[in-house]
Specification:
The complex is a heterodimer of chains A (218) and B (78). In chain A, 32% of the residues lie in helices and 30% in strands. By secondary structure, chain A is of the alpha/beta class. Chain A has one domain (4-212): BirA Bifunctional Protein, domain 2, CATH 3.30.930.10. Chain A is globular, with a radius of gyration of 16 Å. The chains are: A alpha/beta (218), B mainly beta (78).
């Protein structure tokens, strides 16, 4: 299965969301078979549908001082933080071409991230009953998707730099008292996000192929 | 009159939560327009209107849990 890759670099959440919706329309009208949007966000806290605003622990003044916006999002899940120290990936895929199963697609995204981390020498896993990717009991990647007419948007975020990790203290991530970790902490060295992108895309293709038994020959 | 039924969204998932109605009772709607959004786990799923017409009845409000196969609402065809 082919997909087109879009690297937005560092982008505002709303700019990226607009791009997701444009890509969604292209997939819907079959102008492209599927899209994989890769970006890093300027600091932002997003609240999913049915999120509890009390899960933002920081005061409005502190968020303003740190230049962190709060945005209501139509994805699933509760509160999360996005920043430039994360690799955030938005797959725009028509599940009618894969399998019409909302949760299976989230498990695929988690598996792609677990496989990628394994390549980096980091052993990560799923925890039954919880979404995301975990290292022991710390969360390293968060997932939250939306599906419209069986086409996906939103996606998965991998925490990479230590610098960004501190901003998770401003919220109760996903409405839970969960400790977050990042790739730099696990590897105990600095990591360049730009250098990781291509190897992530390559692993994404491979996992897509094995998970859904399709050919990803883009 | 067409009933809008919660379809199976994922294997083994028997219920979802209504998170957003795009249309209210009495409002007109076109076929394939977003009608209602549901949440299950960390995913939202938009259910489109099955026909052009009017949203005549809504049986579940936002925050309610719906079982797969239950009728969420009714569209009166134009």
């Amino acid at each position: 299965m082919n997909f087109q890759i879009f690297d937005l670099g560092i982008s505002d959440y709303n700019t990226s969301l607009k791009f997701q919706k444009e890509t969604f329309l292209k997939v819907q009208s079959k102008l492209i078979p599927a899209g994989l949007i890769i970006n890093r966000h300027n600091p932002v806290i997003t609240l999913g549908r049915l999120a509890d605003r009390n899960n933002i622990l920081a005061s409005d003044e502190l968020l303003l001082k740190n230049n962190i916006r709060v945005i209501n999002s139509e994805r699933g899940g509760d509160a999360t933080y996005h920043g430039p120290g994360q690799l955030t990936v938005y797959p725009i895929f028509d599940l009618k071409n894969l399998e019409k199963d909302v949760h299976l697609f989230m498990r695929f995204l988690e598996q792609a991230m677990i496989d990628f981390l394994s390549n980096m020498g980091v052993s990560a896993r799923r925890i039954e009953g919880k979404s995301g990717v975990w290292i022991k009991n710390k969360k390293i990647a968060s997932v939250g998707i939306s599906i419209r007419q069986w086409i996906t948007f939103h996606g998965i975020s991998l925490n990479i730099t230590r610098e960004d990790l501190k901003n998770f203290k401003l919220i109760r991530p996903c409405g839970m008292d969960v400790e977050m970790t990042c790739l730099e902490s696990e590897l105990n060295r600095a990591v360049s996000i730009d250098e990781l992108k291509n190897s992530f895309i390559e692993q994404f293709k491979q996992t897509l192929e094995s998970f859904y038994c399709v050919t990803a020959d883009n | 009159m067409i009933k809008v039924v919660l379809p199976e969204l994922a294997a083994g998932i028997t219920k979802a939560t209504v998170s957003y109605w795009y249309s209210k009772e009495g409002e007109s709607i076109s076929e394939k327009d977003d009608l209602v959004e549901l949440v299950t786990d960390k995913a939202t799923f938009n259910l489109p209107s099955p026909a052009t017409g009017m949203v005549s009845q809504i049986f579940f409000k936002e925050g309610d849990t719906v079982q797969v196969g239950e009728v969420l609402g009714v569209i009166e065809e134009a």
